[in-house]
Recover the amino acids of this structure.
């Protein structure tokens, strides 16, 4: 039943490009892109509560891989290469950082994204001597939309599977108390590394798929730290421990940010920061959990009345 | 046959020696009390056995194999389980999931319907029958301790380390707690018990090891050790000895 509804919803969403104009389709691409990023982020950060700000590092690696390799090989192979590069970087970074906890992990992941951006910039300036790159691929917006929809569907399916599998339980145990986890025989490093890498591959693909849309990319665009922050806010708003939570957070926030950046380009980051603080304080478990609480309270009132 | 052997185990934290050249052996099936005043190194010793802390010097062996070089997850797989001095529930999980976590990642893992049946049996054995669905964060203190014990037992340990498991219980709870551990003893699990409740120690332990300032002060049958002058002095001071 759930499967049938999901497939119908997927089919309906896939038909959208046939009925809408260029601007709504652009919004759809943005929503799907951030929906995929937020869902991928929550795969790892939801149950473990490790707040990662490395999202844009992988996103940017994906976009840059496409820019560099687009002329050298067929497009599907380019995507595959991007995924592999994202995987290798995630494994290396994961091995180095996943022993860190709390705020140290947050700062390290933020630093990592900046490091990758600076490295790419350095390489482009000193070796290739051109900062930006052009991406000319015959891929229309509707194809980007479909690819992102596919990526989102696969990421959601993975999240669904993980939530019911042993590895999902392992992550929740680690998130609750790593000391107990280790004493129960959970292989902590291995489990965290697997999920961090999986999440990173999905993020890399989100960047790679969207690269043809920008035509021109440079480090300050594809490694913009705002992407990492937005992803975190979206997942937190919707609820990082619910299957559809991150996606649900991505829809309104993406539309809000579009509107804000068009109308208040100078105050945009201030509003973003305030919103971030408000969400963390008011909805620590996301809207879905807040809604459940509210519904439970209503029910109690009815019962006592 | 000896199950656990500590040989000249030492733990230093910077300049502080928490455990100093500690050696003792536990025979399979034994139930031994590890006693001593606060700060004498009991919990540190337990933490080294379970792999939570690495040893500074010396070796710990289980079934003749060195475990003091392994991490806690490997030691758990070799058959050591523990409870913590301050109860460590997994608060966002249900009671059933707390126990499932132990079944799912032990050496011979259980999952699905097999695990469900086992969870029911384990919870019943600690007095939490039918409470699988409750959120762990909603349990009372004694029930948290019961759940933690069920979780430790779910790993099918050869050696169970109980760190002040009976502390903070009221007299009724204490009696049911002692009964529970007595049943465990009868089932053949080797138990090392850090405890301050002397009635419980007398009821549960045939043998006691006493530590003071990180070293072993006494080791022998419970009645003899508790009457030992040096033990009384360590606990109560010279005037009482």
């Amino acid at each position: 039943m759930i499967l049938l509804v999901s497939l119908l919803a997927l089919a309906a969403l896939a038909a959208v490009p046939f009925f809408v104009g260029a601007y709504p389709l652009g919004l759809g691409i943005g929503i799907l892109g951030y929906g995929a990023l937020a869902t991928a982020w929550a795969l790892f950060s939801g149950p473990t509560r490790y707040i990662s700000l490395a999202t844009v590092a992988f996103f940017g690696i994906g976009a840059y891989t496409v820019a560099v390799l687009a002329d050298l090989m067929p497009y599907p192979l380019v995507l595959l290469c991007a995924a592999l590069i994202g995987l290798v970087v995630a494994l290396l970074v994961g091995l180095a950082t996943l022993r860190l906890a709390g705020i140290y992990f947050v700062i390290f992941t933020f630093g990592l994204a900046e490091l990758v951006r600076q490295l790419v910039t350095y390489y482009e300036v000193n070796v290739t001597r051109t900062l930006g790159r052009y991406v000319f691929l015959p891929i229309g917006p509707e194809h980007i939309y479909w690819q992102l929809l596919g990526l989102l569907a696969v990421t959601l399916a993975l999240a669904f599977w993980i939530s019911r599998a042993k590895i999902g339980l392992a992550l929740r145990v680690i998130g609750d108390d790593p000391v107990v986890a280790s004493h129960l025989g959970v292989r902590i490093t291995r489990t965290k590394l697997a999920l961090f890498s999986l999440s990173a591959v999905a993020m890399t693909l989100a960047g790679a798929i969207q690269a043809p849309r920008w035509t021109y990319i440079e480090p300050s665009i594809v490694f913009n730290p705002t992407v990492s922050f937005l992803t975190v806010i979206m997942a937190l708003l919707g609820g990082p421990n619910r299957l559809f939570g991150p996606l649900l957070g991505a829809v309104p926030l993406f539309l809000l940010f579009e509107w804000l950046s068009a109308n208040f380009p100078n105050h945009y980051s201030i509003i973003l920061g305030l919103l971030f603080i408000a969400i963390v304080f008011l909805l620590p478990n996301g809207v879905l959990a807040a809604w459940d609480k509210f519904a439970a309270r209503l029910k109690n009132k009815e019962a006592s009345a | 046959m000896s199950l656990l052997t500590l040989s000249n185990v030492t733990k230093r934290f910077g300049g502080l020696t928490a455990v100093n050249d500690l050696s003792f052996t536990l025979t399979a099936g034994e139930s031994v009390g590890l006693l001593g005043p606060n700060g004498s190194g009991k919990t540190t010793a337990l933490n080294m056995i379970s792999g939570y802390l690495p040893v500074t010097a010396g070796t710990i062996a289980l079934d003749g194999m060195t475990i003091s070089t392994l991490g806690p997850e490997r030691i758990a797989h070799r058959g050591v389980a523990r409870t913590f001095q301050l109860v460590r529930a997994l608060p966002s999980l249900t009671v059933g999931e707390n126990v499932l976590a132990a079944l799912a990642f032990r050496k011979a893992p259980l999952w699905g319907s097999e695990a469900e049946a086992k969870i029911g049996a384990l919870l019943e054995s600690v007095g939490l029958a039918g409470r699988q669905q409750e959120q762990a964060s909603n349990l009372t203190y004694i029930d948290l301790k019961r759940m933690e014990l069920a979780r430790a037992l779910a790993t099918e340990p050869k050696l169970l380390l109980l760190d002040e498991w009976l502390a903070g219980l009221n007299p009724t709870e204490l009696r049911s707690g002692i009964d529970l551990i007595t049943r465990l003893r009868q089932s053949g699990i080797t138990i090392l018990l850090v405890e301050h409740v002397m009635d419980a120690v007398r009821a549960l332990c045939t043998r006691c090891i006493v530590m003071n300032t990180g070293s072993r002060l006494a080791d022998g049958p419970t009645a003899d050790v508790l009457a030992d002058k040096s033990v009384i002095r360590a606990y109560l001071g010279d005037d009482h000895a």
